[in-house]
Amino acid sequence: MTTNSSKLATQLAQAKGWDNLLRQLMLAGKALHPLSAQARNEHSEVQGCQSRVWLQLTVDNNQQVAMLAWSDSKIIRGVLAVIQEKVNVLSPEQIAAFDFDDWFASIQLERYLSQSRASGIAEVIRQIRHQAAVND
Amino acid sequence: MTAQTEQESQLPARERGELLVERVLETQTIWGLMGADGWVMVDSDTQTCLPVWPDEASVAFWQRKDLPDSKPQPIALDEFTGTWLPGLKKNQIGLVLFPTGNLREGIVTSADELLLQLTDDDE
């Protein structure tokens, strides 16, 4: 069953073959809630990414997490959109405990956590955990 | 021929395929190889394929000693998606994305699929 809170992830998990997965990822990128151009600065930029990535995560009084992100790369925007979909339904506590490796493997994206091109998604996850903890 | 291109040519096939799609969307240009008898095609296990690259420099990492007169040629993305891909589809010719090395390896895909990837762009 597909719920709205995991639509992008479900589409990826069901994608067959490299071509289809790539296309789903590029489509997912269109759903990304973007970090505004003004907010893309040295504070929000995630270091260590081959494609430039900016990330901002806020936590409101109700423990509601809101992640905004952007990348120059269309494919990485797709990866960020899928992460955003997940992170925005988790509390800071749940983010700290969430097994991103396992989840990435289940939606066929494990490669992005370790690929040689060093897309820096692992660094994005570290930043999410850090910001969820300090902004809580 | 830059160090970056050399590094890119050594990436796994899937990552080279992704790199090709992204760079072609960015530059609006895709590269093929023109030989003495026209565009160079290769035979994969099951079908004939057109090899394509993201830029001129990356073609150099494809072994082509048997094609001494061949030269990289740019194709505008508009022309590629509007004319080439429909033509390749009609003739049941596939594509091999950013093949490199002596084994000439690259992801093999269909004209239909590459068309979707290269036209999913709404910017």
Architecture overview:
With 136 residues, chain A is mainly alpha-helical. In chain A, 49% of the residues lie in helices and 12% in strands. A three-stranded antiparallel β-sheet of chain A has the order 1-2-3, covered by helices on one side. The model of chain A has no long low-confidence stretch (mean pLDDT 89). Chain B has 123 residues and is α+β, with helices and mostly antiparallel strands. Chain B has a single domain, classed as 3-Layer(aba) Sandwich (Trna Endonuclease, Chain: A, domain 1). Chain B is built from five helices and seven strands, in the order H-H-E-E-E-E-H-E-H-E-E-H. Chain B has a four-stranded mixed β-sheet. Chain B starts with a helix and ends with a helix. The interface between A and B is medium-sized, with 15 and 20 residues.
Chain-wise SSE layout:
The complex is a heterodimer of chains A (136) and B (123).
Chain A: H1 7-14, H2 17-29, E1 45-46, E2 53-59, E3 65-71, H3 74-87, H4 92-97, H5 100-106, H6 111-114, H7 121-134
Antiparallel strand pairs in A: 1-2, 2-3
Helix pairs in contact in A: 2-3
Chain B: H1 3-9, H2 13-27, E1 29-35, E2 38-39, E3 42-43, E4 48-52, H3 56-59, E5 71-76, H4 77-90, E6 94-100, E7 105-109, H5 111-119
Parallel strand pairs in B: 4-6
Antiparallel strand pairs in B: 1-2, 1-5, 3-4, 6-7
Helix pairs in contact in B: 4-5
Overall domain count of chain A: 1
| Fraction of residues in H or I helices of chain B | 25-40%
Q: What's the tally of helices of chain A?
A: 7
Query: What percentage of amino acids of chain A are in beta strands?
Result: 5-15%
Based on secondary structure, the structural category of chain A is mainly alpha
The total of beta strands of chain A comes to: 3
Quick summary of this structure?
Chain A is mainly alpha-helical. Chain A has helices at residues 7-14, 17-29, 74-87, 92-97, 100-106, 111-114, 121-134; strands at 45-46, 53-59, 65-71.
